[in-house]
Design goal:
The structure holds 2 protein chains of 2 kinds.
Chain A (H helix, E strand, L loop, with lengths): L3 E6 L3 H10 L6 E4 L15 E3 L8 E2 H12 L5 E3 L2 E9 L2 E8 L3 E12 L3 E3 L15 E3 H11 L1 E2 L3 E5 L3 H12 L3 E7 L8 H8 L6 E3 L1 E7 L6 E6 L12 E3 L3 E4 L3 E3 L31 E3 L10 H20 L8 E6 L3 E5 L2 E3 L6 E8 L3 E10 L2 E11 L5 E6 L9 E9 L1
Parallel strand pairs in A: 1-2, 1-8, 2-5, 8-20, 10-18, 12-13, 12-18, 13-14, 21-28
Antiparallel strand pairs in A: 3-4, 6-7, 7-8, 9-19, 15-16, 16-17, 21-23, 22-24, 24-27, 25-26, 25-28
Chain B lengths: L1 E7 L3 H10 L6 E4 L16 E2 L10 H20 L3 E2 L3 E5 L2 H16 L6 E4 H7 L9 E5 L3 E3 L1 H14 L3 E3 L4 E7 L2 E6 L4 E9 L5 H8 L10 E8 L10 E4 L9 E4 L5 E4 L3 E2 L10 H11 L11 E9 L8 E4 L6 E5 L5 H20 L23 H10 L6 E3 L4 E2 H8 L8 H8 L12 H12 L18 E2 L5
Helix pairs in contact in B: 1-5, 1-8, 2-8, 10-11, 10-12
The chains are: A alpha/beta, B alpha+beta.
Chain lengths: 421, 482
């Protein structure tokens, strides 16, 4: 079988946008999706609030997905749905992609480039070492969302939510609308991990309490969940004795983080950032393996799908150029690293052999601030400062660095200075 | 009808006794109170087949551990069970602990454990590079193995069923009495069974069951909880052998145990408690596990932790295994106090119960038709290329990957649902096939597994249990007219 030029793994918002921008009549492109239809996680996000940046209008998740899918319909690209990637390898400059489906069983495809847009998965109760019993009734919020919005089943009637990630907030409202009692949301950090608009629209509007600096310290229930205890935590996240509150619930939803889903890369190892749990990429979205690109939630977890589309569009374009212009990566790179009050940034490298004019850096802060400043350094030299307002860790920040602002080969650092909390 | 033997408890011990009895012409029934075999201690332990270095010489534990260890090699042949022959090191850090190694070297030899020797730190570190720097010597225990405990229990029951065993689950025994040399055993759901013998293999509940039959139960169960971390199978290579610290008065201590499928278990601590049902974990308990593991290896990849759990050891006030006929009720056989090395000893316990106790009283004829062979359900991912092609041609459901973390297909899961002892709960499927046992812990596949169980067994999805009885995940359908 003739090799593909580009294979895109994952047909959610990222994969669809990557396909659109990577597409060229002269290229053989394949998009692989494990579900029966394209659209990814958007299909179960039936609430609105999507597309304000990208489409300049407010859409539901399925509507946003549908727009993207329509934009790639009729392009000449191959799409394989109901097909799962088992493993990816690279030999002699070619990727071999082991896939499986019910049409052909297990088989192998070849490609010159791969774009990884396989999304993310939810951190589990085991990963956060949730203490107490392990009965039925504890699950990631996204699983409950799927059961409710796709399958049409309610997982419980008395609900508590651990973690104030956006899915947790959305599910607080969704379960409430479905008639369940939602008794509260506990967040370990002193600030919410969700978008401000979700705190307002999903919790405040429904009188659902948010317990900041609280976590679940006990779970009771031999067979099914019967109750939980939450406690306030100190600055070292240790439970404060005497602060316990008990809730009788049959459901505990977890919204305690999302992790890039790159588990299909058991054999082909690329450099992973311990901060994002996704690949380390240069400004072309290329990983440490040449020809392997990454974008969307498989690269780092985004708060808005609009930004996934934007990033995947860039990654797709870079993959197209990589093939069409036969671009080789240089070893002439400059590192970008986070400094004070920045949790992570992306891309982590600039490939100076590439003729770029400017690069957009995405990053998250570690703290809240009403006003502050982002300082961009190269080595010890301050390149420039950008003022910022209403900064929260849950919302991704961006700034642009122009190539002609760079003064040498030293690493670039970004620092966040809090002016007003 | 009257059974010859009624066994209470479908854990590894009851399973081993049941299989041993089907080697003879006898009518045997095994009752399990849960909705699956091996749901308690059998599913929550270190999975080690110990060499037999630890029990006191002359004890039943020593005898049955060493014999059981050898019998696992036979079971591997007969029942096609997973067996990881990785050996173990007991590590010492100083002169005092080296003396403890010498003591266990002597004890192991006395118990008849083959191949044991003391290695210097350099040799040990060449074999296990992640050992902590302070390790000064190790006791090598090459016959130590690791298995997949619940699969062994289920395999034994399935093979026994092929040879005539009746296995009934969701049968919690609440009444036992003996009249005219026959026991009447009643269960909470209203069933009644008659049997000439009752064999009590109820694990942590053994004293409660015994108390149904006799007034002065000669032991108490003192449940002892142990907590564990489970690291993802992608840590494979970090450690090959099971690591023990030098034992203290409290027991074997915190271990690190590479599992058959690549995961590493770290634990258990040892917490006495009143309830045999309390398998909760605690922050303090898990911290003590971490502290213990610091004596074994450095740079433990806890960021690959996918789960924590706890199990309860069915320790008894008797100390040694308590395996004998009741002194008060004839033909009632106690198999109690089966804590560590219970898993290791289980196949030998089965033999001991039949050969050393029952055969002294009965002259059972061998079951000429007994077939010791059972084949495990081979997973698609474990098949060769040609086997995969063949399997897919027969059933294209092998092409539907359900669990992406552990690479388990619909074809695999359907076969585990259809087994003799069916995987008919979410955890039942996980235990058998490993669907849901990976990084995302079922976040991706749980709903698919649920639907497959419902489809294959003709149930509604709201009737599919997560683990124990009445633990259905879905409570009600939302878009129906009421």
């Amino acid at each position: 079988m003739k090799p593909y030029d580009i294979v895109i793994i994952g047909g959610g918002a990222g994969g669809v946008a990557a396909l659109k921008s990577a597409y060229d009549e002269s290229l053989r492109i394949l998009l692989i999706e494990r579900d029966k239809t394209l659209g990814g996680i958007l299909k179960q996000c039936i609430h609105n609030g999507f597309g304000l940046h990208h489409y300049k209008e407010e859409l539901t998740g399925p509507e946003y997905a549908e727009r993207g899918i329509r934009e790639i319909e009729g392009l000449g690209a191959d799409v394989l749905v109901d097909t799962t990637v088992m493993d990816v390898n690279k030999e002699n400059g070619r990727f071999s992609i082991n896939v499986i489906n019910t049409d052909k069983g297990a088989f192998t495809l070849e490609s010159k480039a791969v774009i990884l847009s396989s999304g993310c998965y939810e951190r589990t109760s085991g990963a956060i070492q949730l203490p107490g019993d392990r009965p039925a009734g504890i699950m990631p919020a996204g699983s409950a969302q799927r059961y409710l919005n796709i399958d049409g089943y309610l997982v419980g009637r008395k609900v508590f939510i651990l973690g104030s990630g956006d899915i947790g907030l959305i599910m607080a409202r969704r379960m409430r609308l479905e008639g369940a009692d939602v008794l509260g949301v506990a967040e370990l950090m002193p600030h919410s991990n969700g978008l401000t608009r979700n705190i307002v629209q999903c919790l405040h509007d429904f009188d659902i309490p948010l317990y900041l600096s609280h976590t679940v310290t006990d779970i009771r229930g031999e067979s099914v969940l019967e109750g939980i205890t939450i406690s306030e935590v100190d600055e070292q996240f240790n439970a404060i004795e005497g602060s316990e509150k008990h809730f009788e619930v049959d459901t505990l939803l977890l919204s305690v983080g999302l992790i890039p889903d790159i588990g299909m890369f058991d054999s082909l190892k690329f450099d992973i950032s311990p901060k994002t749990n996704g690949a380390i990429v240069d400004h072309t979205y290329q990983t440490s393996i040449e020809g392997l690109f990454a974008c969307g939630n498989a690269l780092h977890v985004h708060d808005l799908v609009d930004f996934v589309t934007e990033e995947a569009t860039k990654a797709g374009k870079q993959a197209k150029d990589y093939i069409l212009k036969n671009k080789k990566r240089s070893h002439n790179t400059i590192d970008l690293t986070p400094k004070g009050n920045i949790s992570y940034l992306l891309p982590q490298k600039l490939d100076m052999g590439d003729a770029f004019e400017e690069v957009t850096v995405s990053f998250r802060t570690t703290t809240n601030a009403m006003t502050g400043k982002f300082h961009v350094y190269q080595g010890d030299t301050l390149l420039f400062t950008k003022k910022a307002k209403f900064i929260v860790p849950a919302e991704m920040e961006k700034l642009t660095i122009k190539r002609d602002q760079l003064i040498n080969k030293d690493p670039i650092n970004i620092e966040f200075e809090v002016i007003n909390v | 009808m009257t059974y010859d033997f009624l066994i209470i408890g479908g854990g590894i011990t009851g399973a081993a006794i049941a299989r041993e009895l089907t080697k003879y012409e006898a009518k045997t029934i095994l009752l399990e109170k849960e909705n699956d075999a091996g749901n308690h201690a059998t599913s929550a332990n270190s999975a080690i087949i110990h060499s037999g270095h630890d029990p006191m010489p002359g004890s039943l534990k020593a005898l049955l551990n060493v014999e059981g260890n050898k019998l696992y090699d036979v079971l591997e042949e007969e029942l096609d069970i997973p067996l990881f022959k990785n050996g173990a090191f007991m590590v010492a850090h100083n002169d005092e602990e080296e003396k403890v190694l010498e003591k266990y070297l002597g004890r192991a030899k006395e118990n008849g454990v083959p191949g044991v020797k003391i290695l210097d730190a350099k040799t040990a570190r060449q074999l296990e590079p992640n050992l902590v720097d302070s390790v000064s010597k190790v006791l090598s225990l090459p016959t130590t193995k690791v298995t997949y405990p619940w699969e062994v229990a289920i395999a034994m029951i399935e093979n026994a069923m092929d040879n005539g065993l009746v296995f009934a689950k969701k049968k919690e025994v609440n009444i036992i009495y003996r009249e005219d040399n026959v026991f009447t055993v009643k269960t909470r759901d209203g069933s009644t069974y008659k049997s000439r013998y009752v064999i009590n293999a109820a694990g942590a509940y053994a004293a409660r069951v015994a108390a149904l039959s006799e007034e002065a139960v000669p032991y108490r169960i003192t449940p002892r909880k142990g907590e564990y971390f489970v690291l993802d199978r992608r840590v494979q290579g970090f450690l090959s052998r099971t690591l023990y610290p030098t034992p203290s008065e409290k027991g074997k201590g915190i271990l690190m145990v590479p599992q058959y499928h690549g995961n590493i278990l770290i634990g258990p601590n040892s917490v006495y408690q009143d309830s045999p049902d309390d398998v909760s974990t605690s922050k303090a308990g898990l911290s003590s596990v971490k502290a213990g593991a610091e004596l074994l290896t450095k740079n433990i990849p806890y960021h690959k932790n996918i789960r924590t759990f706890a199990g309860v050891r069915a320790s008894s006030t008797h100390g040694d295994f308590y395996i004998r006929e009741s002194l008060q009720k004839e033909n009632f056989i106690h198999v109690a106090g089966i804590d560590s090395p219970g898993l290791s000893a289980a196949p030998a316990i089965g033999r001991y119960v039949v050969e050393a106790i029952i055969m002294k009283k009965e002259s059972l004829k061998p079951n000429e038709a007994f077939n010791p062979i059972r084949k495990h359900v081979k997973l698609f991912d474990d098949m060769s290329e040609s086997e995969k092609e063949e399997a897919f041609k027969m059933d294209n459901r092998y092409g539907n990957l359900v669990c992406k973390c552990e690479r388990i297909t619909e074809g695999d899961i359907v076969r585990h649902i259809q087994r003799n002892v069916p995987g008919d709960t979410i955890k039942g499927v996980k235990k058998r096939s490993r669907a849901g046992a990976g990084l995302c812990q079922g976040g991706y596949c749980e709903h698919q597994v649920m639907k497959l169980i419902a489809r294959e067994l003709g149930k509604d999805v709201t009737e599919v249990d997560y683990f124990s009885n009445h633990s259905n995940i879905l409570k009600e359908e939302t878009k129906v007219k009421k």
